[in-house]
Design goal:
The structure is a single chain. The model has no long low-confidence stretch (mean pLDDT about 95). This protein is about 45% helix and about 15% strand. The protein folds into 2 domains: about 1-170 and about 345-360, Glycogen Phosphorylase B (Rossmann fold, 3-Layer(aba) Sandwich); about 185-335, 3-Layer(aba) Sandwich (Rossmann fold), CATH 3.40.50.2000. Helix 1 packs across helix 16 (about 350-360) and helix 4 runs parallel beside helix 5. The chain has 16 helices and 13 strands. It is α/β, with parallel strands linked by helices. The radius of gyration is 20 Å and the shape is globular. Helix 5 (about 130-140) links the parallel strand 5 and strand 6 (about 145-150). The strands form 2 sheets. The chain has a 7-stranded parallel beta sheet, with helices on both faces.
Amino acid sequence: MKKIITVAGARPNFMKIAPIYKAFSKHTDKVKHMICHTGQHYDKKMSDVFFRQLELPEPEFNLGIGSGSHAVQTAGILVEFEKLLISERPDLIIVVGDVNSTIACTLAAAKLGIRTAHVESGLRSFDRAMPEEINRLLTDSISDMLFVTEPSGLQNLKNEGVPAEKIFFTGNVMIDSLAGFLDRAENTTIMDELKLKAGEYILVTMHRPSNTDNPEQLRAIVEMIENLAGFKEVVFPVHPRTKSAMEKLDKSLKQNNRIKLIEPLGYLDFLKLMKYCDLVVTDSGGIQEETTYLGVQCVTLRKSTERPVTVDVGTNHLAGDSTKTALEIVSQIYKGNKKTGRIPELWDGKAAERIVEVILKSFE
Ligand code: UD1
C-alpha cells in the first residue's frame, strides 16, 4: 500500500485537489491518500465552504499556518510540513498551483528525498515581480513528476531543459471540478438573492498585489469599476487583501446602486455568477481558464498571463495593467467585438483520472 499526501493551502487550490481526491478514492486497495491543509487561507469564506461544496473530507492534517509576510508564511509551512513528512513518511506528495504552500511543501519533501508531483506545472508569466512566478519556477525545478495543463507549459519546461520523461500533458484539474459541479451550481439561489438577471451584469474580481498594493493603481481600479457600472450593473466579491487595501485608500467607491460589493462567495455561487454574467473583469489566474471553458468574455487586468491558451484559443482579452485599456476592451465587447473561443485540448473533465493513472503506473 502506497501513501500519498496531497497539499492544499489557499482558495484556488481546493477546486484542484477535489478531483484528485475523488480519482484516488477508486483505488483505496493500492493507495492511502490523505489531504494536508496548510492553513494559508483560514477564513470560512476562503476555505471551509470550499471543502464542503467540493465534497472534500476534513483534511487529515492541518498545519494552521495562517497569514504573514512571504518569508514568515513560507518558512512556517516548511517547518511544520517537514515534521509531518518525518512522522508520516509518504511515498509521494502532490502539490497544485503556485501559492506559497506549493513551494514550501515541495521544498520540504525534496530535501527529505520524498517524491513530489506538481499539478499545473510549466505555466510561466515571465514576470518575476509576481510571487506566484517564483513559486512556479522553484516548484517545477525540484519536482519529480510535472503534470501540465496546456501546450505552453510543455514548451516552457522543454526550454528549461526538463527531461521529457518527467513531463505529462494531462489537462486541467480545475476544469474537472467546474465541469463536475456546474449542474449543482445551477441550483443555487445567489442570482435571486442579489437580484441579478442573466446577461445583465459584469462580474469583477481583483486581488493581485500588483493591483491592490499600489494605491495609485487601486484608485484607478475603483474609477474603472465606477465606469463599468455605466455599461451594466457590477458585482464585485471582495477578497480580504483587497478589502483591507480599499479601506486604507483615500478614495472610496461612489455610492451607486449599480455596484454590488459583496463578501467572497462560495464555489457554487461563484460558478453560477460566472456562467450567467455578461463579462468578467479580473486579475485572477484560474478565472481566465474558467471563463474560457464557459465561453464567457474575460478582460484580464494584468501585464502578462501564464495561461496563454486562454488568449490564443479561449475568450480571454489581456488588457495589460491599464484600466483605460480594460475599459476600451469592454466597450469593444459591447460593440459586438467578442471572441469566439473554444475549449482547449484535454480540458474534458478527466484530467485527475489521467494523473492518477500515471502516478499508479510510476509505483509499478
Ligand atoms: C494567495 C496566493 C495567490 C492566490 C490567492 C487567492 C500566494 C503567494 N498567493 O494570495 O496566488 O491567487 O491566494 O486568494 O500564495 N486573508 C484573510 N483570510 C484568509 C486568508 C487571507 O483575511 O483566509 C488576508 C490576510 O490579511 C492576508 C491577506 O489576506 O495577509 C493575503 O493572504 P495571503 O495568503 O498572503 O495571499 P493572497 O493574497 O490570498
